[in-house]
Amino acid sequence: MKTKNLMTLLLAAIVALQFNNGLIAQEMNKMWGEQSAGNTEVKRGRFFDWGNYAMFIHWGLYSQLANKWDGATYYGNSEWIMNKNMAGIPLDEYKAVAKSFNPDKFDAKQFAQLAKDAGMKYIIITSKHHDGFAMYHSQCNKFNIVDATPFKRDPMKELSEACKELGLGFGFYYSHNQDWTYPGGTSGPKVDHEGNPKTFDDYFVEKCLPQVEEITKNYGEIELIWFDTPGRMPKQYAKQLVEVVHRNQPRALVSGRVGFGLGDYRTFGDMEVPLENVEGLWEGVDVTNDSWGFAWYDQNWKTPKQILGYLIATIARGGTYMLNVGPDPSGQIPEMAQISLRTAGEWIARYPQVIYSAESSPWKHALPWGDVVVNDGKIYLAVFDWSSYGKLYLPGLKSEITSVKLLTGNKSQKLNFTREGNLTIINTPCPKPEKLVSVIEVSIKGDIEVDNTLFVDPELGLKISTKFSTPENCNVKYKGWLEKYGEWKHIYQIGDWNDKSSTTWNFEIMTPGRYFVELTATGTGNRVWNVMTDEGFEIQNRQNTSSIYHTQPIGWVNFKTAGKHSLTVRIPEGERANTSLAEIKLTPFE
Length: 590
Fold this sequence. Notes:
By secondary structure, this protein is α/β, with parallel strands linked by helices.
């Protein structure tokens, strides 16, 4: 769990009483001032640990192109369109795009208000991405939005002021290693315009370091600086940048992507939510659609329920969630992104205790119907799959329960419950009370004690990663890949199969009987899957696989008794070597 102090608990109380009024920001600033006045060690990240939710904005010269160049559309992250892996735009031609970049519909107050309406607590925006173009008025390099474009305004100054007015934190993304247009920057030209050789040290001294000084001195108080892609840059440069940030902004965090373990917190891979709890300060970063910067074709927007799903899952694993939007060439955030964000924000306004100052789940992983967070000693069940039979099964809670309540905004309804062995069975009303995510508050006596054994829900079954299995003569490994350029997918999978390999899941079932088994896998050719229970019930099925993960039916197994059981998967025949097994799913017979 994240470490919470007295200040955080006080903030939680303020949120509960004053969520929809501007006193939150005032109280936070007051308490931070009091804390730092009496403490020589300044606490960093005012909003990061408490707020749990932030807006990321990828906006730059690439937004003008919107993934089109020379009549062709390039699919992937728009901020990479200049790169050789996409359009491979020559440096001078890319820089010339600045002459037509005029996002005249940009309104900083609208950006900040959207973040506030969405329930986000701070904004991080690209001050300079890999293309080297500065989205603020840089004094050390003319390739910036004020000096090189007809826009002639500093949107970062306007946005920092709008955030301050609305009580939001503000900070910058800065690409410290890659600079594709400045001589000496990684992946940039090796010589200047006069043909003189340039090194990374030249780039660092002439542009990178001065610009980090600018963004940490000229825009008021900063929540954090989000560096990116350190690559093979020497550690000494990253160390110097961290020192600059901490000197100029004592309360600001430095992201883990500065490299070399020098950051104040850990940043996971793009679009990645861990499957198990992670200790310490960390964040997950994600997109509202597929591309970070604006792409004309990209309409694959996350729904409000999907946004809440990723947000709550990140908090339940112990992290902070930062969700990206990409303004269009006119400087406006796409309408569908706004709709999803505001709708999710309306839900957050009804259930702030599920988000702000919330801590990780004692179960340490998701449950079949949703996820769990803890706030001020109370357990909050975020139920995504509401029971159609009027029962919610909460496994493994050992603590004495004093009350169970269904929350509906500012109202609550007492729910009856029973305890059966390792299960708490909560009687729930039909239909589901919330369109998006329903919330049940469980109050307990004393400390929270949990047996986090996997549980096969009598109604929903269980879908679980191989990360939670025990392999023998094979290995569970993390796997990440690009679905298309810039769009990451993440799984854990079992590979390195041979004729002696197996993997076993341990879990608990409440209802004896038959369960349908499905496996999610990839590979080439055919293989035979063998599935056996701890009671000796065995099924076997031959299936073909493909280069993409898909779910395959295997058959029915039978568990004769309730309680703790295990299920083991083997490949007795067929193409083993290139097989990747990602998940197993058990569905109860109805």
